[in-house]
Structure prediction request, 72 residues.
Amino acid sequence: MRLEYLKPARIDDVLEVETRVTEVKGATLSLAQRVLRKGIALFEAEVLVVLVSVSGKPQRLSQRLRAGLAGG
Prediction:
């Protein structure tokens, strides 16, 4: 993860979280995330998600899931 804290939020703030898939590979997803308050970015992150089996080894995403995440 790469995290960037841009501005503080308060306990009563209404926040919006945006998540966008930026890349889909065999066993990984790359995501871009932002947290906004009234359209102003408070936090940004780049996240790499890896699918692993119960034994801890990388496991390929199904073709159907990859196609759905890639928008096709």
Summary: The longest strand covers residues 40-50. The longest helix spans residues 63-69. The helical segments are 63-69. The beta strands are 2-5, 16-24, 28-37, 40-50.
